[in-house]
Amino acid sequence: MILTVDLLALLKTRISEFDRRLALRHGDRYDKIKQQFDGAKKWYQTTKSEAQSSNTIPLDQKQEETSDQFAKAGATTARQEEVIKQKLKKLLDNRTKG
Question: What single DSSP character describes residue 3?
């Protein structure tokens, strides 16, 4: 659908009027939300361009990092479990001998 110049100008006018009404109605809250939204758009554009230039997908990279963290946590838990088992065994051996 091709927008005519007049229709585009009308849409821009309505958007700016709507923006002005929201600002009047909600004041600082609306301004903060607009700033957060603008920040999110900038972050998205930056992340998108970085992903395109490095040929990596951020989601895949994050999943890989998370998997590594879980693997490390699992190994640490297994070591701690073994230490606890040894301490319990030692404690039970001392109780049965004593």
Answer: P
What is the Cα–Cα distance from 89 to 26, expressed in whole angstroms?
Answer: 66
DSSP labels, 51-90: HHHHT--HHHHHHHHHHHHHHHHHHHHHHHHHHHHHHHHH
Could you read off the pLDDT of 45-97 as tens digits, one per residue? 998 888 788 777 777 888 999 999 999 999 999 999 999 999 999 999 998 88
pLDDT at 98 over 80: no
> What's the rounded Cα separation, in Å, for the pair 19 and 30?
9
C-alpha pair distances (Å), 54 with each of 44, 48, 50, 51: 15, 10, 6, 5
